């Protein structure tokens, strides 16, 4: 009788991957200076069930080494590296690689309150009709001291969001938000055209499909310093902010959004052509004249050119004589003379 053939034991089935409840998404570019306290504030959260994705966007400093050092000590951290491609590409890649249904944004220069994630996840669990929840922030300077940023806090409930949009007020503090990943993906993630204001454009697109809120608690310490994006790209931010609002109005009116599939916004002066109607360029220049009149960085750069174009186009010059005086105070008498000449000619 032939001997029984004994088959080898079957290999054990691979254990299913455990999906965390939250993915924390951080993009880093030359952020070595503030990166360690930002990472530590995430690791110190009272809510523990998360994966922490840190994408190094081709940093030239020691950011990658700092991130890898923390990853070696905490298995929840996954470091992603690639060449520099910018924040919008980084955010979309983080969304694609996140495994959890909820994503918490975090920047490499800010600091989370220990209960931030716990409070936001509890809110989203209790409010299934809300897709995004942010928090108010505490403004600090580069040394962690209070920073007098001014302005208004963000709207607390969804009912106040439309009013805040119409009044062109801040809607969310981007590194303080937690959102439902599938909803953000359903509207196409972050749009390439809105570089430096990609978050504001996203909130305006999400406002049409979900409810949004902010917890009236300061659960993020938001850092201000000379080298941050909002200081280096103030004029471009204001242009993008204004165009995003106009695109929102187009969608509200049932018209197509011409910015949805373009890589970069055209310069002011070509926006009438983009939107297919007159008055868009004039509206954007009027907004720029108001918004940039107090920005030393913008007035020292091309912001002044936009204000002068607004004056020469017959725009409202109320308050711009004070901008002339402000330029003198800023130590820019030549620019003050240029604006004064435009104001005289525009009377």
TrEMBL record:
InterPro entries, per the entry: Glyco_trans_2-like, Nucleotide-diphossugar_trans
Alphabetical UniProt keywords: Transferase
> Which residue ranges does UniProt annotate as crossing the membrane?
none
**What name does this protein carry?**
Glycosyltransferase
Native organism is Aurantiacibacter arachoides
MF terms from GO for this chain are:
hexosyltransferase activity
Alphabetical list of Gene3D superfamilies matching this protein: Spore Coat Polysaccharide Biosynthesis Protein SpsA, Chain A
Q: Where is the Glycosyltransferase 2-like domain?
A: 23-151
């Amino acid at each position: 009788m032939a001997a029984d053939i004994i088959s080898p034991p079957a290999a054990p089935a691979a254990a299913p991957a455990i999906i965390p409840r939250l993915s924390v998404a951080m993009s880093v570019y030359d952020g070595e200076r503030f990166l360690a306290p930002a990472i530590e504030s995430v690791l110190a959260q009272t809510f523990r069930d998360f994966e922490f994705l840190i994408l190094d966007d081709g940093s030239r400093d020691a950011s990658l080494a700092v991130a890898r050092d923390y990853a070696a000590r905490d298995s929840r951290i996954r470091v992603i590296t690639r060449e520099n491609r910018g924040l919008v590409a980084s955010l979309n890649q983080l969304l694609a690689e996140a495994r959890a249904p909820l994503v918490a944004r975090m920047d490499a220069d800010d600091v989370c309150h220990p209960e931030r994630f716990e409070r936001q996840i509890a809110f989203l669990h209790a409010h299934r009709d809300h897709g995004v929840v942010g928090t108010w922030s505490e403004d600090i300077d580069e040394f962690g001291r209070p920073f007098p940023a001014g302005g208004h806090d963000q709207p607390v409930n969804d009912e106040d969001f439309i009013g805040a949009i119409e009044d062109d007020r801040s809607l969310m503090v981007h590194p303080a938000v937690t959102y439902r990943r599938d909803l953000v993906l359903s509207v196409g993630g972050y749009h390439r055209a809105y570089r430096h204001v990609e978050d504001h454009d996203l909130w305006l697109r999400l406002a049409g499909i979900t409810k949004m809120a902010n917890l009236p608690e300061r659960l993020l310490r938001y850092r201000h310093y000379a080298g941050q994006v909002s200081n280096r790209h103030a004029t471009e931010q204001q242009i993008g902010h204004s165009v995003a609002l106009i695109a929102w109005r187009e969608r509200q009116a049932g018209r197509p959004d011409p910015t949805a599939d373009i890589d970069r916004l055209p310069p002011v002066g070509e926006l009438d052509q983009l939107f297919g109607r007159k008055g868009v360029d004039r509206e954007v220049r009027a907004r720029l004249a108001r918004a940039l009149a107090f920005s030393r960085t913008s007035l020292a750069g091309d912001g002044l050119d936009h204000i002068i174009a607004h004056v020469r186009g017959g725009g409202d010059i109320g308050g711009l004589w004070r901008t002339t005086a402000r330029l003198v105070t800023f130590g820019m008498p030549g620019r003050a003379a240029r604006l004064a000449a435009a104001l005289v000619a525009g009377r």
